[in-house]
Write a structure and sequence with these properties.
heterodimer; A: mainly alpha; Four Helix Bundle (Hemerythrin (Met), subunit A); 85% helix; 0% strand; B: mainly alpha; 2 domains; 3 helices
């Protein structure tokens, strides 16, 4: 590759990452709005939030935090691997990331279905008869963890696309912006969970 | 990528960051049993903020980004903090 081509590739990478960051800021404010709603209602109905949060399983929450933290590391390592032209290692690390994301979703499935068994879900009769604060807590719980789970799914799809791109060679040691941006997205998913976890599971 | 140089983070440095993040998570879980009273929320959010900063700086490679991207990210987080602080001032002074 000529030095000119390398130079233009760097400019593409810089602007590409800039665009991704601007998108991530909009995501931050999307969840930030929900955090604010949570914070204000928590201040207003602290006793109800306390009771409702005690219903959540701290162990499952902690386990999911560990899954997401490890997956954040593996995706960061995948970028190191592609920079060192270790294609197979990069693909293995991305696969581990996707697997950890799937484990996270599985945990979430068990957690939600357990709540559904007790008829705690948006619009259920049990929930409607709860005190106002508990109703708000579970509403926010489903909204925030649901929106987050949707991001996990999108992240899994993005990482899978990267697997194919690495195999095809369109993501390589020279052009890995797609992997970098997918990695940034995946870290955002992790960042949001880092705040959701103490707010929903630990503050009881 | 900046100034024609690409910084490649080592596998080891990523592993060290993960260990730090896991330790902070366990401290955060353990801290809920220590009964700080009114400060429990503050302690949990402080630990979460440290974790978030660690992920952004290390895993998201902001440490090696251009000054422009660094300034932009810091600016947005300051704005975010201001929105939260102003909302709470409004809420408590009503």
């Amino acid at each position: 590759m000529s030095s000119q081509a390398i130079h233009s590739n760097q400019i593409d990478s810089e602007t590409g990452k800039l665009g991704m960051w601007i998108f991530l800021f909009t995501e931050l404010f999307l969840f930030g709005g929900l955090f604010l709603v949570y914070a204000v209602f928590r201040a207003k109905y602290s006793a109800d939030f306390h009771t409702a949060a005690a219903e959540l399983n701290t162990f499952i929450g902690t386990l999911n935090t560990v899954f997401l933290l490890i997956s954040s590391m593996t995706v960061a390592m995948a970028i190191t691997a592609i920079q060192k032209n270790q294609k197979n290692l990069a693909m293995l690390l991305i696969s581990i990331t996707i697997l950890l994301a799937a484990l996270f979703m599985l945990n979430k499935y068990f957690e939600w279905s357990h709540k559904f068994e007790f008829e705690i879900y948006p619009g259920s009769a049990v929930l409607k008869n709860m005190p106002q604060g508990e109703l708000l807590f579970f509403g926010l719980y489903y909204m925030m963890t649901g929106l987050h789970a949707l991001h996990v799914l999108i992240g899994m799809i993005l990482l899978t696309i990267n697997l194919f791109k690495i195999r095809k060679g369109t993501v390589s040691q020279i052009h890995y912006l797609h992997l970098e941006n997918s990695g940034l997205y995946w870290h955002l998913v992790d960042l949001i969970w880092i705040f959701l976890f103490p707010l929903l599971y630990l503050i009881t | 990528m900046q100034n024609g140089e690409t910084h490649i983070s080592s596998y080891k440095s990523h592993a060290v960051v993960l260990i730090a993040l896991l330790l902070l998570t366990f401290i955060s879980v353990a801290a809920t049993g220590w009964h700080f009273g009114a400060y429990t929320v503050a302690v949990a959010l402080l630990i979460a903020s440290i974790k978030v900063a660690t992920v952004i700086i290390n895993f998201m490679h902001v440490k090696h980004e251009s000054l422009f991207i660094k300034a932009m990210i810091s600016g947005v987080f300051v704005l975010f903090a201001l929105i939260i602080i102003i909302t709470f001032i409004d809420y408590y002074l009503r």
